[in-house]
Design a protein that fits this description.
The structure is a homodimer. Chain A contains ten helices and twelve strands. By secondary structure, chain A is of the alpha/beta class. In chain A, strands 1-4-8-5-9-10-11-12 form an eight-stranded mixed β-sheet, with helices on both faces. Chain A has a two-stranded antiparallel sheet with strand order 2-3. The first copy, chain A, has a two-stranded parallel ribbon with strand order 6-7. Chain A is globular. The two termini of chain A are 32 Å apart. Chains A and B meet through α3, α4, α5, α6 and α7 of A and α3, α4, α5, α6 and α7 of B. Chains A, B: It holds the Pfam family Abhydrolase_1. Chains A, B: Keywords: Acyltransferase, Amino-acid biosynthesis, Cytoplasm, Methionine biosynthesis, Transferase.
């Protein structure tokens, strides 16, 4: 089991405008992507990995000039890893509107010659999937062995199974949900309000002012981060430990840092505000809020999934209170009602929603076993073809 | 069961400085308070009601000039109500540092002639109890029949039982906790960061600038409010209902309001930012974070409660995820270990942490039954004294 080694991102340009769910459309645009492994002769071993809020096309491997630039799912994707790049051709793609190279609000709006800013159209999960399908076309991939993702990435995988049923054999949805709850939306709106009311946001056109709404982004990330961790995990890692306990075992009696958890969260918030784009954050939280494939079917998820053809792996984590196992079970039940083939794993892991990104032997074993079966199918097909 | 009718707040001035836990002290200061019912001859029927984050001395009744100014616990306190003012003399007091009349950051600092602002000292739950004890002295109340409160108010009641064991016969702690968890502190720190980074905060001295950090307060209140409601309650009340559903059943595709829950939370945040003081919010969240009576006893809550003499009623609500029943049970167990008399009620109510303020037949019945027993004790004592 080795590392994927150094990787190089690629850019694919699309000249034809993409019509969006909002009714708007986005003119010519670029998608950044990376690939790992080798596409087989009949192009049947491709796996698309969809990313969540703050991730990108950089799923695995490192960049030559940055030894610490490991991909966000490097523990999952690589030679001999659960998603084995010795057998599968894996594609990571940065979504439209994101801030890691694909066309987004910080890029020049051809209509004005200035950065899009507030003029960048709002996108939905389905819009991202449409854009990804065009990329697949250009790469000559008619059908994916699997589309997979965690959290918001899982929503994209699920949308693939609905929008392009014949284009994926397997759909892998981890730590996700068929729709956000009122509480999920509420937390997202707190984050948005923090950004929107930051005077440095300038109505979305902060690029022209040479500033960044860092304070808003920081608060947004802090509140988001709390929802990614489990209560128990936070208690165990931080509890009520004081930051300055070594020096003096007492409270500071000011508004600086008293507790380790404050120090940790502020650091996470500050770090995030250094690299993430505020408009992207807003746009992605809206895509999360809007996701609700059952909506077009009177709220009936079974109906929404009735046209799917893929086989499914659904996985959830017991301590995930953002998208709890209950939410994954809704998907499973709707699929079972449609007599789809579904494997469901509810993994007892302490790390809350973040668990989908972390090393956990049981979790890794579940995904590995699923991909092993996929690989057998693949070689079976090849054998069948040769017979 | 009637209303308490119109009430009039009173002010008590204290000339002697109060030494605080931080080492600082606060010079002469004023406490606002209200009383309901009549103090009996031997001054044995007094009940002190301690308030939580955004409440005040105005516990029950209305103000003559404001018919809608009902006290925050008017459903609990009044003639014939669970805390029956026909039998008990109830005192509500606004804590030091709050923004409803007692001396706080918005008042003139005698040392500078300007508003305290950032110079107002940080306070602890124990400091509030010390100030309340002085008020009791001035009112001639040596021993309370009960000290009671919910949430942060419950922390004050618990501190009374530790700091002045002989001064209360009953201690009533509702929807509270012996200390905040890392997650509780994390949410408080998000709220603080929203306020502290609002440019209109001016390092706490915004009074002199004629502005108020409304955006920060709004975000702070929004995140707080989410933690007061239960996930299920929010789902039932709001779900994914669209704000504009009557006009057009579709998303807005902008950063305005899409969902009812957003509208509700933003409204709550805006309303709060109109009347609440930012420095008070910061100060009270720190008092919450600092509360940890077991800390002085190596983390041993049983030791911390070993000197208590009161009888206890502890109550919690099943859907309260801010201060869950588990946290109340910690208090119960520590009291039982000390062989104290404890009644514990775990009430199955849907409304999360807010349940302690709401009408719930089972909850009201528990408090009523407890006070009925207290009233019997009182009349028993009187009979005994007359014999």
């Amino acid at each position: 089991m080795g590392s994927i080694g150094t990787v190089t991102p690629q850019a694919m340009h699309f000249a034809e405008p993409l019509r969006l769910q909002s009714g708007a459309s986005i003119g010519d645009y670029t998608l950044m992507y990376e690939t790992y492994g080798t596409l087989n002769a009949d192009k049947s071993n491709a796996v698309l990995v969809c990313h969540a809020l703050n991730a990108s096309h950089h799923v695995a491997g490192t960049y030559a000039d940055k030894p610490k630039s490991q991909g966000w799912w490097d523990n999952m994707v690589g030679p001999g890893k659960p998603v084995d790049t010795d057998r599968f051709f894996v594609i990571g793609v940065n979504n439209l509107g994101s801030c890691f190279g694909s066309t987004g609000p910080m890029h020049t709006n051809p209509a004005t010659g200035k950065p899009y800013g507030a003029a960048f159209p709002l996108l939905t999960v389905e819009d991202w999937v449409s854009a990804q399908a065009r990329l697949a076309d250009r790469l000559g991939i008619e059908q994916f062995a699997a589309v997979m993702g965690g959290s918001l990435g899982g929503m994209q995988a699920l949308s693939w199974s609905i929008m392009f049923p014949e284009r994926l054999r397997h759909c892998i949805v981890i730590a996700s949900t068929p729709k956000l709850s009122a509480q999920n939306i509420a937390f997202n709106d707190v984050a948005r309000q923090a950004i929107l009311t930051d005077p440095d946001y300038h109505g979305g056109d902060f690029y022209e002012h040479g500033v960044v709404p860092k304070n808003g982004l920081k608060v947004a990330r802090m509140v988001g981060h709390i929802t990614y961790l489990s209560n128990d995990d936070m208690a165990e890692k931080f509890g009520r430990k004081l930051r300055n306990a070594a020096e003096k075992d007492d409270y500071a009696f000011d508004f600086g840092v008293d507790f380790e958890i404050e120090s940790y969260l502020r650091y996470q918030g500050d770090k995030f505000s250094e690299y993430f784009d505020a408009n992207t954050y807003l746009l992605i939280t809206k895509a999360l809020d809007y996701f609700d494939p059952a909506r077009a079917h009177g709220g009936d998820l079974t109906k929404a999934l009735s046209g799917t053809q893929a086989q499914f792996l659904i996985a959830s984590f017991t301590t995930d209170w953002r998208f709890s196992p209950e939410r994954s079970r809704e998907i499973v039940e709707a699929l079972v009602s449609n007599r789809r083939k579904v494997s469901y794993a509810e993994i007892d892991a302490p790390h809350g929603h973040d668990a989908f990104l972390l090393e956990d032997p049981r979790y890794m074993a579940v995904v590995r076993a699923y991909y092993d079966r996929m690989a057998e199918e693949l070689s079976g097909e090849l054998t069948g073809a040769a017979a």
